[in-house]
Amino acid sequence: MTVHEGKPTGSESPDPESRVLLRVRGLHTRFLTTRGPVYAVNGVSFSLQRGESLALVGESGCGKSATVLSLLGLLPARSASVTAQEVSFGQRDLLSVDEQVMQRIRGAEIGMIFQDPRGSLNPVLTVGRQLTESLEVHMGLGSGQARTSAIELLRSVGVPDPEARLDDYPHQFSGGMCQRVMIAMALGCTPSLLIADEPTTALDVTIQAQIVKLIAAHRAEHDMAMIWISHDLSVVAQIADRVAVMYAGLIVEYAPAREIFGSPRHPYTRGLLASVPTLEDPKADSLSAIPGQPPDMSKQPVGCAFSDRCSHAFERCRTEAPALSPVGPDAYVACWWDAEADRSREAV
């Protein structure tokens, strides 16, 4: 996995370059409004190998969804401007292929679970037709085969009585059931990359665990890479190999998941983890919170975008933006404060 300007940082694979599926360098996304541009994504770089799972985490509005929608060409051309040094999927440049090619890539090679499942399903088509159409177009199945596969897909994601529910319309499903349908559609064509935007938010804990297990098994069986967007850090800890923490349209920390959860370096990452409720301290009567508000993205920040909310900020933080820099094997952080030095002082 590479994060900082595409520079290699090592991998368990003897030939990591041969397994790179997705490479992104210098991705910028602007939303054009009547009040001026909104700087949603501000130079994101990473790469993803086949079979690898990357989680994007951060507060709402930090650029997670905008990043993946930019890669898939799903932002409206009139109101969004997307530029990058490189966005390659296999041997193809996703920003230069025409819409016809992009439509073949979406669904067949890149599956997407959207954040708003009910709004993403066509209200005038049955759930069955929406599932079978994708299987017929991308997998070349006949109508009978596609219907049989659609029933099995619904059964696999926990939809009861799938034979009957196949002929229902989206409005006849609950929000959680619509989410399961979206997951079935995303996995149906066995894509080489799955992008999941808050895929388990609308599900209860039991079904959530089943879906996570299902996706993990599908990933292992098909060597499927995955980008998992979530606010739920407990799920991220279960499913991600690596984590990219985003703030103000930037990746501020990237590391293997075990390091993010065991030894976070960026103050923002530490704040996110501290705000998660645990059962370890039964006497705690309140949750830790990150003070202040995220920055106004209609203005490009001077210095570190997190400096106004950071208890460790000093003068350099307010005048000079830190670059995402290596701090260990396959680990990067964009911060002037040295978390490791601070831990050493605390241990003395």
Could you explain how this protein is built, in words?
The protein is 34% helix and 22% strand. The protein is of the alpha/beta class and 348 residues long. The strands form 2 sheets. It has an 8-stranded mixed β-sheet, sandwiched between helices. Strand 5 (86-89) and strand 6 form a beta hairpin. Helix 4 packs across helix 5 (143-156) and helix 5 packs across helix 7 (175-187). The longest helix is centred in the middle third of the chain and has 18 residues, at 205-222.
Using brief descriptors, characterize the structure shown:
13 strands; alpha/beta; disordered N terminus; 13 helices; single chain; eight-stranded mixed beta sheet; 348 residues; five-stranded antiparallel beta sheet
Layout of secondary structure:
Blueprint: E1 20-33, E2 36-49, E3 53-57, H1 64-71, E4 80-83, E5 86-89, E6 92-93, H2 99-108, E7 110-113, H3 117-120, H4 127-139, H5 143-156, H6 162-165, H7 175-187, E8 193-197, H8 205-222, E9 225-229, H9 233-239, E10 242-247, E11 250-256, H10 257-262, H11 267-274, H12 315-319, E12 325-328, E13 331-333, H13 339-347
Parallel strand pairs: 3-9, 3-10, 7-8, 8-9
Antiparallel strand pairs: 1-2, 1-4, 1-5, 5-6, 10-11, 11-13, 12-13
Helix pairs in contact: 4-5, 5-7
